[in-house]
């Protein structure tokens, strides 16, 4: 059976359409083959089955050409450290990411920015590509540091390629630039910094975003905040801080009367941490902005946060988007 198209398609959409036609033919032929088999006509059943398998091969061929067309068109003129995966199926994307990671490492590139969609074209609107890439990173040699961060438009998936270690985060930026390169802060540095902060009366803003700080380092930062008399803005987003750190921070801010803004976005903070922060909000008189964007807060934590909004007299901004259950309470 020849190709459906009179002339070779030139775009990914055309190749996808061709694949869909062949897929429909394959389904029809295999259905007829099963019917023939049930009717006892084994020769016809085998002939139809073989024809169905041939259509299946054409599906794979058309989809492969579509992936090549999309990839070539989307990445024309892009540097090796940036790749756009729009239009690709998850399996097609993973293959190209693995190839690009090797190219980046060979070229000495310190990072790779992977542009993906929001899942609008996936079944039921559920993103498929982002989780697959995240899973690829988590099962690659080394460890994954950091968490996720996204805003509104097509997310960017930054994969920082380092010897024997990968780290990643999702960000968005209209100008398609890498915002910064996070790195792992050693505990020795955090310990010395935390000891020095209460003695510093001029530093007003501390940014420790994307530094792979865990609950051990988080406790050190919380201790420093308890005693600090100058810090007004602290960014701890995109780390690996859990409920333990949230409880420590809540205890610290129950006595801190200086801090105005606390950013904890994209950390694995759950209901326990959220409840501790809510208790803190009932007595804190200075905090006006708290971000818990894309954490791991569920029903109970959300209910506590909703109650905290009624009690707090100073909080002006609370960001809880993209948690486990946001719409039910906000």
From TrEMBL:
Residues 83-160 form the Smr domain. Pfam families: DUF1771 (PF08590), LRR_6 (PF13516), Smr (PF01713). Keywords: Mitochondrion. SMART domains: DUF1771, LRR_RI, SMR. The keyword Cell membrane does not apply. This is Smr domain-containing protein.
